[in-house]
Design a protein that fits this description.
With about 260 residues, the protein is mainly α. About 75% of the residues lie in helices and about 0% in strands. It has helices at about 10-25, 25-30, 30-45, 50, 60-90, 95-100, 105-135, 140-165, 170-185, 200-205, 210-220, 230-250; strands at about 55, 60.
Length: about 260
């Protein structure tokens, strides 16, 4: 089996299988983020928004929209990849892909791309929900699309690592609930970095979610508390590095062989 060769037929077959896996289960894929984000917009956007009014000259409900999109997108990209890899290991059907002529690059590409697609779809769903509560515009379409693609691919790559590392389903839940979501909530989703004391603001800058949330916020609103060009460049390099790690782990059989 080659490390870098690309088999288009096998790649598209595996990609199609992984996409159909979540598309055919809308109750698991789309209903939970729909309900969760209706509650977020109702409580944080409508109720709190009436008291907070504006942040950086932007209505509060509109200010939190990009962060909620990031939360939904990266959570679902991570969850899809980690569950798909772990479930395949658990039920041993991942061996069908491992014993096929597919290269490791093609396998990782299919898992990562399908999971990123789920993240983007959920992000679009959250944006549509936001349109019910407020007027949504796009200030910089290129940055919006670029950041959405990069962050979903990045967390799909992290999800592959999580799926290979996990020993049981509790490990998957722990990673999503106790690592991923806290990073997002402390990444400037519901508040401005300029509103917190200096030492805490500096600490927040160590959180990669800050750059993702601000990047998507810049795409929508044209407002960002960090440089979007630097953020996009760093996140793109990190994504390439994580996907490269995925390929190496597959080649070494990490978590795939007993």
């Amino acid at each position: 089996m080659s490390l870098t060769s690309f088999d288009a037929t096998g790649f598209y077959a595996l990609l199609r299988r992984e996409i159909l896996r979540f598309v055919r289960r809308p109750r698991n894929t789309f209903v939970p983020p729909f309900i969760t984000n209706v509650l977020y917009f109702s409580v944080f956007g409508v109720i709190l928004g009436e008291r907070i009014n504006e942040i950086a000259g932007v209505p509060y409900i509109l200010f939190i929209l990009p962060g909620l999109i990031v939360l939904g997108a990266v959570s679902n990209a991570f969850e899809n990849a980690s569950f798909s890899i772990f479930h395949g290991r658990w039920n041993r059907y991942i061996e069908e892909a491992l014993t096929s002529p597919l290269s490791y690059t093609s396998m990782v590409g299919a898992y990562v791309l399908s999971s990123a697609m789920r993240g983007v779809l959920v992000g679009v769903l959250v944006a549509i929900i936001g349109m019910v509560f407020t007027t949504v515009g796009v200030a910089h379409p290129f940055y919006l699309v670029a950041f959405m693609l990069v962050i979903t691919l990045l967390f799909a790559g992290f999800g592959v690592i999580g799926g290979l590392w996990a020993d049981d389903f509790d490990d998957l839940t722990m990673m999503n609930q106790f690592i991923l979501r806290p990073l997002v909530f402390f990444g400037g989703v519901f508040y401005s970095l300029n509103e917190i004391p200096g030492i805490f603001r500096q600490a927040s800058l160590a959180n990669p979610m800050v750059y993702m949330v601000n990047g998507v916020r810049y795409g929508f609103l044209g407002v960002s508390e960090v440089n979007p060009n630097i953020s996009l460049a760093v996140l793109s390099l990190l994504t390439l590095a994580v996907v490269a790690v995925n390929i190496v782990l597959f080649r070494r059989g990490y978590g795939l062989t007993e």
